Amino acid sequence: MKRIGLFATILSVITLLSSCEVIGGIFKAGMWSGIIIVVIVIALIIWLISKFMGGNRP
User: Fold this and answer.
1) What global pTM score does this model have?
2) Measured CA angle at 40 (ends 13, 9), to 5 deg
3) Separation CA 4–CA 15 (nearest Å)
4) Could you tell me which residue, 1 or 12, shows the higher pLDDT?
5) Where are its TM segments located (predicted)?
6) Which residue from 43, 11, 15 is spatially nearest to 35, judged by alpha carbons?
7) Which class for 54: exposed (0-12), middle (13-18), buried (19 or more C-beta within 10 A)?
8) What pLDDT is stored for residue 40 in this prediction?
9) Which end of the chain is more exposed for a tag (fewer CB within 10 A), N or C?
10) Cβ-count burial 18-30 (b if 16+ within 10 Å, e if not)
């Protein structure tokens, strides 16, 4: 049940945020903060995918 809630939350965030607004906000904040945000988002996506695919292997 937790997976469904997490998936629904991620799906709603993705559909509600326009990519143009996100990119515009990153450029307003500055290059380095944009790079840090992008790295954090990519790491979060990789972590979530590993959790969904059963990343708890020893």
Assistant:
1) 0.46
2) 20
3) 16
4) 12
5) 29-49
6) 43
7) exposed
8) 92
9) C
10) eeeeeeeebeeee
Cβ-contact 33, 26 below 8 angstroms? yes
**Residue 50 structure tokens:** 């590993």
Residues 2-58 have pLDDT tens digits of: 667 777 777 777 777 666 776 777 677 777 877 888 899 999 999 888 888 875 555
* CA–CA separation, 49 and 27 (whole Å): 27
Residues across the chain: 58
Cα separations in angstroms, 34 against 21, 29, 41, 48, 49? 13, 7, 11, 21, 23
Cα distances (Å, whole numbers) of residue 8 to 31, 36, 48, 56: 31, 26, 13, 22
- Measured distance CA(27)–CA(52) in Å, rounded: 32
